[in-house]
Amino acid sequence: MSRRPSTAEPASAPVITEEDLAALDTSEGGETLDRPEEIVNLVAEKAGAALAILTTAVIVVLVTVAVVLRYFFNSSLPVASEGPTYLFPWLIAGGAIVAQATRGHIAVDVLVGRLGGRAHDRAQIAIWAFSAMLLGYLTYLAVYLIPPMAAQSTPIMGWPQLGSFGAFILMVAVMTLQAAARTLHYLRHGAPEKNEAPDA
Description:
Subcellular location: Cell inner membrane
Family: Belongs to the TRAP transporter small permease family.
Strand content: under 5%
Order of helices and strands: HHHHHH
Helix content: 55-70%
Number of strands: 0
Organism: Brachybacterium hainanense
InterPro entries: DctQ, TRAP_DctQ
Distance between the termini: 80 Å
Protein name: TRAP transporter small permease
Number of domains: 1
Low-confidence stretches: 27-32
Number of helices: 6
Structural class: mainly alpha
Radius of gyration: 26 Å
Shape: flat
Largest sheet: none
């Protein structure tokens, strides 16, 4: 017995729109704002960016020189061998300062992202005040470590390790000021809501 072909029209496949994808997005916060909210973070952003760019350029030059000497001349240059390692903490410090200035750091704010109005402001103020105190304590510990770090030197060039460790001291000190400035700014003007541009 032959089957009759079905006359029913095949069901059309559902179309997923941009709105559907946006509704599925459960990520909260962590977005990078275009500019810092106040002058302290604005200056820190520019200074951190300059530090990161300069350090990156010097590291690239030194690594290139080291590779060329090693593979083409079977030789080495001590400063090219040890310089990138010595300067790398300064690159990290510059990047961390820029990330904090623009709120581009990784944030897990599932709870805070769901708050609104005054509750959101209070949560942000509390978070940044705690961050300022924690970073201030890290700055104290870093300064406390200056004497033992000053007594150490690098194995190749004999440079003081304090020159490299100084990047950490600078980073936590500047980030302390950044967090404190943001706390005061939020106390005066309130914290920006998600996807809201900060007022300068």
